[in-house]
Amino acid sequence: MMNRFAATLAGGAALALSATAAFAQSTTVPGEQVGLAAGAPLPEGIYAVDTFTYRRTDQPFSPDTSVNVPFLLWSTPLTPLGGRIEALVAQPTVFAFTRNAAGQGNKDISINVGTLLAGIWAFDLGGHVGVSFLGGVHLNDLDAGRGSLFTGAFAPNPRVPGGLSPVGTPVLPQFSSNTYRFGVAGSYTGDGWDITANLTANIYDSPGRFGGLVGSAIGPLRLSDALNIDLTATKKFGNFEIGPVAYGTYNFDISSFSAAAGNRGRFAIGGLIGYDFKAFTVQAYVARDVVTGATYTNALGRTRDNYSTDGWVRFIIPLYTPPAAAPVVAPLVRKG
């Protein structure tokens, strides 16, 4: 019984620590905005978008991770100074799926990310060029998953979460603080092109803290602010869309005391395909790291770069667009 419990404890701690390493980056997932002409103002209406990514690292038996980001965007009729106001609400969720070898405990987890509330101010500069500015906040302090992985060390049944053992926590240290998100994007959308560069900054209240008894045991966490870049250069041929994409993240604080210790960030390159079904649009893209600050030690004790491969799928659904204004009919005048 003790051997089984020890294996469960070790498996849980390994999952938590590996998931932490896999997401030693901004709350905004790099690549999340690839394929969106974020700089161009949207026509007035309400849009639903869901973006899902599945990620696997080169490190053997490290967990696969995924993030689902559904959001609603209201492109309002308000255009102060010529820029359209857009309101956005999103509720992301993070998942981790273990790949432990036989004989080791396996556990899949999901963690709620703080609801994102954001506003966008988007301008059409003419010549199919647009620029937008975003400001928002992930309410991690209010409703994000705490990221604590209980082992049940003091519970009657070790399979039941409980007790005060914080082994392997926090899974996602960046959730110990609200994430203040700021972005600027520029897009060219002429002749079927989507050429977009999108910069996103994530700012934290550092040091961050989790609440409750486990949070007290963990103590304060030093968090690194981060900067993401998402790049798109796709072309539409009829209803089809295809082209290269790239994205990356840069962590500013990689000191030994930071949650991003030793990991400056990553940069990935890939390709996107999409199809416009008129009622909705589907996009899929795959990217592979070409630069990474993540490392792991193999069975021979050698340190290796821990590259990642990401697969993505997105659905874009216009829910409502206002009816077009009826044309004004000129009166027919006859001369007698």
Automatic annotation (TrEMBL):
<feature type="signal peptide">
    <location>
        <begin position="1"/>
        <end position="24"/>
    </location>
</feature>
<keyword id="KW-0732">Signal</keyword>
<protein>
    <recommendedName>
        <fullName>MetA-pathway of phenol degradation</fullName>
    </recommendedName>
</protein>
